[in-house]
Specification:
The structure is a homodimer. By secondary structure, chain A is of the alpha/beta class. Helix content of chain A is 48%, strand content 16%. Chain A contains 14 helices and eleven strands. An eleven-stranded mixed beta sheet of chain A has the order 3-2-1-4-11-10-5-6-9-7-8, sandwiched between helices. Chain A is globular and about 60 Å long. Chain A starts with 8 loop residues before the first strand and ends with a helix. At the A-B interface, helix 8, helix 9, helix 10 and helix 11 of A face helix 8, helix 9, helix 10 and helix 11 of B.
């Protein structure tokens, strides 16, 4: 991951979003400023809460600018209500700053549904994209796997899945740095007669398509962690449940491992000796390392940090945003969707009909 | 788990199903005969392959009976083709034996779709049940969680989900031995405005229902491993992907832990000292311990063992079948569905419209 943005960038930050905001947000920003010299921040939120936190971290002062926002979107707020009543919220004003050209991208650890609704309303979708998707990176045995959609769309047709494949492939090239990433569709089996109509139709379109996508075919849930392909496409209902199931299983293992390693004096001594190796293992699957879910398909960079994250996770979400902006992931999506329309004579939406 | 069936039982075994059949099947049967004195077996498959294996394990001879079946259903066979052409297969003849009264239940590690299609065709569904579901038990931080459907139905309406809730609750009472298990519906969030139409409608029905079900509401993917509720209901598409995602994550963790513990001389020594604790931990999440997915809602006991399982897993699948038969889980489902019809005046199917 790059640590110095090539040109000066400004990131708008929802300083009030997340379980431990605004403190973890300010500390996350501070972590990033240490290494990325070319990035400055607009912090949206309640100045009386944020200013003392910024003042404590002196190096922050020249790099951040506070912008007053009195309202905060609650974690349980319905997206439609947030959109209607949240015009003066820290989340909305941070998004507006990007639309106004005052910032290059926005990061929030707040309400996912509200953030998506606002970002979609303000940024609009990129040309040819029907619906944005949430994409994130998962650890795998082979390396890393991109999964999308993680919850933006509970119902998806074949056309949406095909568009997610195009966007996910661009994301993998930029974020994972892969030249020719492989793409699979999540299903209940690898055989082509399995699954619902949407996945079967999407697979048929991708198989016949002239798009420069290395389409692998169907993959199953365990392929996320096995790393069978680089990008896995699914609807937002299944994707969200796969994401949370993986998180839950990881927590179960961490819980059991910790319990095991204090269960006897021998185990404690063993844990001490194996400590560095176990810490290296934990770092490999630390969810904070993978923090930063990208809203793909919007005409603006918006990254969602995990609601329960700490400053380390939030800093990684910011780095994800910086990387996406610096590498021009939205330019890449625009380019690929233009190619889809011009080269094949149909856009994926029409082809999926 | 009970180790002695109260009354003599006969289990029909598909001896040819599974990646390592028939050897792992015969060895699995042998494991069970050691402890369960009151169970005998009908082994369906190619006698020339099975007989030598049985002869090697002498104690098996008085407990097993071989039944010739020349055909074997391939793992990649379409369910519809298996149903049409598999009449002389080991899988089908084992199912037929139960229908004919020669056995009390059937266990197979073969093709899941084919097994479900055949079992449904031969056994039919229980009164009031529209569609059978595949249920299995997952390890959780709190203990164990039942999840269904794991893949029998890729598309489910609200009525199906409600019926799965009723069946899953009976299963949890019998298999987990719980008096009043709690039931949740898998969704992308806990708020009632989230999710697709099917889960919203199913939740509304269960909330208003006079059924004696302790309905918790919506749960998320991480609640499977956290053990927030005892039974989690979902459609077969999402359930299958959640199951496989959990399996994949578990394999990733096991892989990383093993790698970590041989990564340095200190780590190796630590692993040696913590060995017993780590083995106890592994046993707690060993998928073989949880082997045995039940086909719920059929008028016959059919248990699916994991295709890649070994004799230990297959033995546990047999134990699951014995337990379900001995505890009369199908009688319980029949009773509850009769109650649904008579007490509330509507059965879940009608109520879900």
């Amino acid at each position: 991951m790059m640590e110095i943005a090539a040109k000066p960038l400004t990131i708008a930050i929802d300083a009030m979003g997340g379980d431990y905001a605004p403190q973890m947000v300010v500390e996350g920003v501070s972590r990033v400023t240490k290494r990325m010299k070319n990035v400055r921040f607009l912090l949206f939120g309640r100045s009386d809460e944020i200013a003392p936190l910024v003042d404590r971290l002196r190096r922050l002062n020249p790099r951040v600018e506070l912008r007053e926002a009195t309202d905060v979107i609650a974690g349980t707020e319905r997206p439609s209500m947030a959109l209607r009543n949240g015009r003066n919220s820290s989340m909305r004003l941070a998004i507006d700053a990007v639309a106004a050209g005052a910032a290059d991208g926005v990061v929030s650890a707040g309400n996912t549904g509200a953030l998506m609704a606002m970002a979609k309303f303000v940024f609009k979708t990129l040309p040819g994209v029907d619906r944005p998707a949430i994409a994130s990176v998962f650890p795998s045995i082979r390396g890393r796997t991109v999964l999308l959609d993680l919850g933006a769309n509970v119902c998806c047709g074949a056309d949406n899945l095909v568009q997610f494949a195009v966007m996910g492939e661009v994301f993998a090239r930029n974020v994972l740095g892969l030249k020719n990433p492989s793409v699979g569709i999540l299903n209940v089996g690898e055989e082509d007669f399995k699954g619902n109509e949407a996945v079967k139709k999407a697979a048929a379109i991708l198989q016949q398509s002239s798009l420069a996508i290395r389409f692998h075919g169907f993959v199953e849930g365990d392929d996320i962690a096995l790393g069978t392909v680089d990008v896995i496409v699914t609807d937002g209902f299944t994707g969200n449940i796969a994401l949370k199931t993986a998180e839950g299983t990881a927590r179960l293992y961490t819980h059991l491992l910790k319990s095991a390693l204090v269960s006897s004096p021998f185990a404690r001594l063993g844990a001490l000796l194996a400590g560095p190796a176990l810490r290296a293992m934990r770092a490999r699957v630390d969810p904070r390392v993978y923090d930063g879910a990208m809203f793909l398909g919007l005409n603006g960079v918006c990254v969602k940090s995990h609601g329960g994250t700490d400053s380390l996770g939030f800093a990684n979400a910011i780095r994800t945003a910086v990387q996406l902006i610096a590498d021009g992931v939205n330019e890449g999506i625009k380019h690929d969707f233009a190619y889809v329309s011009s080269e094949s004579g149909t856009d994926p939406k029409l082809a999926a009909g």
